[in-house]
Amino acid sequence: MARPVRVVVLGSGSWGTTVAGLAAQNTPTLVWSRSSDTAAEINKEHRNSRYLGDRELPADLRATDDLIEAAHEADVLVVGVPSHAVRGTLDRIADEVRAWVPVVSLAKGLEPGTRLRPTEVISQCLPGHPVGLLAGPNIASEIADGLAAASVVAMQDESVASALQPLFASKVFRVYRNTDVLGCELGGVLKNIVAIAAGMAEGLGVGDNTRAMVLSRGLAEMIRLGVAMGAQPRTFSGLTGMGDLIATCMSPASRNRRVGEAIARGLSVEEAVAELGQVAEGVKTAPTVMELAREYGVEMPIAAEVEAVVAGRRTPTEAYRGLRRRAPGDEEDLV
Ligand SMILES: NC(=O)C1=CN([C@@H]2O[C@H](COP(=O)(O)OP(=O)(O)OC[C@H]3O[C@@H](n4cnc5c(N)ncnc54)[C@H](O)[C@@H]3O)[C@@H](O)[C@H]2O)C=CC1
Ligand SMILES: O=C(CO)COP(=O)(O)O
């Protein structure tokens, strides 16, 4: 009998640990943590208190602080570190991962400097491997609590995607497939910036109509840049686009939204990020997205205001005033 597929997740933050917990219910799974204390806590107490509080993890989820050991074990490699850490982590194991092992990114940001998406960074570090991502409206704490949700494995090769789906799925976690890797990945990246705007709106005490305007016009910006870069417009009305945008903008647990709210309360960006103690990818990604918007010649007024706020050039109140300066054009003009 063939031995089961072994999943290895790199990164033991809130989402890396949660995805490892999902996989461990289906197949032998190992999570790598750069913290030996966290690895020991997962192994001995089946918890990751720093990121997931008292939530109990599957007893057979194993953890290690040895990156090389983790790389050797992988039949499927899941990259769950933040976008800025993907290259540094994978460079250390480029010669250790077996050829053809599929690699699945969880990261929702862009690499600062290169402007590359995480799957592009992965392809540079691990050439020749099938590379894709798992994304959707997936607030980690809710999924760790066992609440129902859905996600998407995006891979160019549908047969690899089909093989990956059951590794992460459960009765309450539905995993779809999509071959539009670019569109799915950009959805997760861009919604974080709109979520910072939604958080600022929350902190400023706006009404529901304003919230809905930020989401809808934010989605229009996501589609505009995505299509200019070559993504399928339809992808943005699915789980990885509108779905993730709604979850992240609405959830008080979203780190990006919380950063926006904290800035509107008067904290500096640095103070807001420090208060959070977890990654809010939209903060680092906003300037990179505006570079892409300029390169592709697309207008992204909401993202531009968010970028100005995180760079300290505007207050949230000024940013919302700034949005009013632009004359409304044709609503259908998405591209
Ligand atoms: N938390 C969530 O609900 C979701 C998060 N994501 C995405 O997943 C990615 C990971 O996020 P989280 O687990 O939530 O972050 P987190 O802030 O909870 O944890 C980050 C993890 O990465 C590790 N890390 C940070 N810098 C590192 C470095 N230079 N080298 C190695 N390890 C490093 C930290 O020690 C920690 O274990 C992000 O791109 C995020 O946008 C995607 C879906 C849901
Ligand atoms: O991507 C997420 C939900 O799908 C998590 O969003 P935050 O990083 O804002 O918490």
UniProtKB/TrEMBL annotation:
<feature type="binding site">
    <location>
        <position position="255"/>
    </location>
    <ligand>
        <name>sn-glycerol 3-phosphate</name>
    </ligand>
</feature>
<feature type="domain" description="Glycerol-3-phosphate dehydrogenase NAD-dependent N-terminal">
    <location>
        <begin position="7"/>
        <end position="160"/>
    </location>
</feature>
<comment type="pathway">
    <text>Membrane lipid metabolism; glycerophospholipid metabolism.</text>
</comment>
<feature type="binding site">
    <location>
        <position position="140"/>
    </location>
    <ligand>
        <name>NADPH</name>
    </ligand>
</feature>
<feature type="binding site">
    <location>
        <position position="136"/>
    </location>
    <ligand>
        <name>sn-glycerol 3-phosphate</name>
    </ligand>
</feature>
<dbReference type="Pfam" id="PF01210">
    <property type="entry name" value="NAD_Gly3P_dh_N"/>
</dbReference>
<feature type="binding site">
    <location>
        <position position="191"/>
    </location>
    <ligand>
        <name>sn-glycerol 3-phosphate</name>
    </ligand>
</feature>
<feature type="active site" description="Proton acceptor">
    <location>
        <position position="191"/>
    </location>
</feature>
<feature type="binding site">
    <location>
        <position position="279"/>
    </location>
    <ligand>
        <name>NADPH</name>
    </ligand>
</feature>
<keyword id="KW-0444">Lipid biosynthesis</keyword>
<feature type="binding site">
    <location>
        <position position="254"/>
    </location>
    <ligand>
        <name>sn-glycerol 3-phosphate</name>
    </ligand>
</feature>
<keyword id="KW-0560">Oxidoreductase</keyword>
<feature type="binding site">
    <location>
        <position position="15"/>
    </location>
    <ligand>
        <name>NADPH</name>
    </ligand>
</feature>
<dbReference type="Pfam" id="PF07479">
    <property type="entry name" value="NAD_Gly3P_dh_C"/>
</dbReference>
<feature type="domain" description="Glycerol-3-phosphate dehydrogenase NAD-dependent C-terminal">
    <location>
        <begin position="180"/>
        <end position="319"/>
    </location>
</feature>
<keyword id="KW-0963">Cytoplasm</keyword>
<comment type="similarity">
    <text>Belongs to the NAD-dependent glycerol-3-phosphate dehydrogenase family.</text>
</comment>
<feature type="binding site">
    <location>
        <position position="108"/>
    </location>
    <ligand>
        <name>sn-glycerol 3-phosphate</name>
    </ligand>
</feature>
<keyword id="KW-0521">NADP</keyword>
<dbReference type="InterPro" id="IPR011128">
    <property type="entry name" value="G3P_DH_NAD-dep_N"/>
</dbReference>
<feature type="binding site">
    <location>
        <position position="255"/>
    </location>
    <ligand>
        <name>NADPH</name>
    </ligand>
</feature>
<keyword id="KW-0547">Nucleotide-binding</keyword>
<dbReference type="InterPro" id="IPR013328">
    <property type="entry name" value="6PGD_dom2"/>
</dbReference>
<feature type="binding site">
    <location>
        <position position="244"/>
    </location>
    <ligand>
        <name>sn-glycerol 3-phosphate</name>
    </ligand>
</feature>
<keyword id="KW-0520">NAD</keyword>
<feature type="binding site">
    <location>
        <position position="34"/>
    </location>
    <ligand>
        <name>NADPH</name>
    </ligand>
</feature>
<protein>
    <recommendedName>
        <fullName>Glycerol-3-phosphate dehydrogenase [NAD(P)+]</fullName>
        <ecNumber>1.1.1.94</ecNumber>
    </recommendedName>
</protein>
<dbReference type="InterPro" id="IPR008927">
    <property type="entry name" value="6-PGluconate_DH-like_C_sf"/>
</dbReference>
<dbReference type="InterPro" id="IPR036291">
    <property type="entry name" value="NAD(P)-bd_dom_sf"/>
</dbReference>
<keyword id="KW-1208">Phospholipid metabolism</keyword>
<comment type="function">
    <text>Catalyzes the reduction of the glycolytic intermediate dihydroxyacetone phosphate (DHAP) to sn-glycerol 3-phosphate (G3P), the key precursor for phospholipid synthesis.</text>
</comment>
<keyword id="KW-0443">Lipid metabolism</keyword>
<dbReference type="InterPro" id="IPR006109">
    <property type="entry name" value="G3P_DH_NAD-dep_C"/>
</dbReference>
<feature type="binding site">
    <location>
        <position position="14"/>
    </location>
    <ligand>
        <name>NADPH</name>
    </ligand>
</feature>
<feature type="binding site">
    <location>
        <position position="281"/>
    </location>
    <ligand>
        <name>NADPH</name>
    </ligand>
</feature>
<dbReference type="InterPro" id="IPR006168">
    <property type="entry name" value="G3P_DH_NAD-dep"/>
</dbReference>
<keyword id="KW-0594">Phospholipid biosynthesis</keyword>
<feature type="binding site">
    <location>
        <position position="108"/>
    </location>
    <ligand>
        <name>NADPH</name>
    </ligand>
</feature>
<feature type="binding site">
    <location>
        <position position="51"/>
    </location>
    <ligand>
        <name>NADPH</name>
    </ligand>
</feature>
<feature type="binding site">
    <location>
        <position position="256"/>
    </location>
    <ligand>
        <name>sn-glycerol 3-phosphate</name>
    </ligand>
</feature>
